[in-house]
Amino acid sequence: WTKNPQPMFSALDELDRAGYRYYFLYTLNSYPPSIESSVPPLKDRLASFRTLAERVGPRKVIWRYDPIILSRQHNASAHLREFEFLASALSGATTRVIISVLDFYRKTTRRLGHLEKETGDSFCREPVTEPELPPLISGIKELASSRNMEMQSCAEDSRLAGMGIQAGKCIDDGLIQREFGISLPSVRDTGQRPACRCIPSRDIGAVDTCQHGCAYCYSTGSFERASARTRTHDPTHPCLFPQG
Fold first, then answer.
1. Residues 151, 135: contact at Cβ < 8 Å?
2. Using an 8 Å Cβ cutoff, are 98 and 152 in contact?
3. Which ranges constitute the DSSP H helices of the chain?
4. Cα(202)–Cα(99) distance, integer angstroms
5. Which positions ≥6 away from 8 have C-beta within 8 Å?
6. Is the separation of the CB atoms in 71 and 136 below 8 Å?
7. How far apart are CA 72 and CA 141, in angstroms?
8. At what angle do helices 133-146 and 76-89 cross, to 10 degrees?
């Protein structure tokens, strides 16, 4: 999972020589800096997406258009315009797009509440109940299909299935079998959220290390702590930051 794969580009040959098999889930939205404060400029992210697809193949770069945030400033019409622009820019560079609707975890609620006070925007706390969501989902599905992209949902129970969106898997045994010839049991990882359909995996990341500063983030507890941990990063250390 990434919002900026560029730092990995120089390591891909090394991973290939070592026999690692991999694919990328690339989260790419067009939210303003108030919501995604530290991601690279959109034009650079689009260029990185296409560069990555040329390097590893479009079936191994999956576009994540998530989370879908509904607010006064980001209503269905705005999302349709943004999705059409992004889908056109990524045409031929991916064959699958995964969507999800924003869940309001405690951290998310706190940060977006602060943002409402700063910007005057108003975020919908129950987007799946909004009347504008079904036509929005139908519209972006049609746009994706017109660019030869299949659409799946991520951890959405039956909420989007009723709108015609197939429940997907980020860690997908079918994709792994098809692309790498590796057969894995098609069983759900019980350590994930109930609606998650991913097969079992091991996460080698660490919380409070991401630098993107997204207001909707449910993982990072403190952006300040993440910055401090980044400053102590030692590439020769077995962990992302010194444990003590």
1. no
2. yes
3. 12-17, 42-56, 76-89, 106-119, 133-146, 173-180, 223-231
4. 23
5. 2
6. no
7. 22
8. 10
pLDDT at position 127? 87
pTM recorded for the entire structure: 0.95
Q: Give the integer Cα–Cα distance in Å for 55 and 62.
A: 14
Token pair for residue 226?
Answer: 């993440």
User: DSSP class of residue 238?
Assistant: S
- The helix/strand count (H/E) of the chain reads as 7, 5
Q: Using an 8 Å Cβ cutoff, are 46 and 90 in contact?
A: yes
Q: Which two tokens stand for residue 50?
A: 């296409």
> What residue has token string 């980001």?
74
Is the separation of the CB atoms in 4 and 40 below 8 Å?
yes
Q: Could you give the CA distance from residue 158 to residue 152 in angstroms, rounded to a whole number?
A: 12
Summarised one tens digit per residue, pLDDT across range 86-136 is 999 999 999 999 999 999 999 999 999 999 999 999 999 998 888 999 999
Return the pLDDT at 244: 65
Does pLDDT of 178 surpass 80? yes
Question: At residue 28, what is the residue type?
Answer: L
Q: What is the DSSP string of 18-32?
A: TT----EEEE-----
41 exposure class (CB count in 10 Å sphere: 0-12, 13-18, 19+): exposed
CA distance 23 to 178: 12
Q: Provide the 10 A C-beta neighbour count for residue 88.
A: 11
Q: How many residues are recorded in the chain?
A: 244
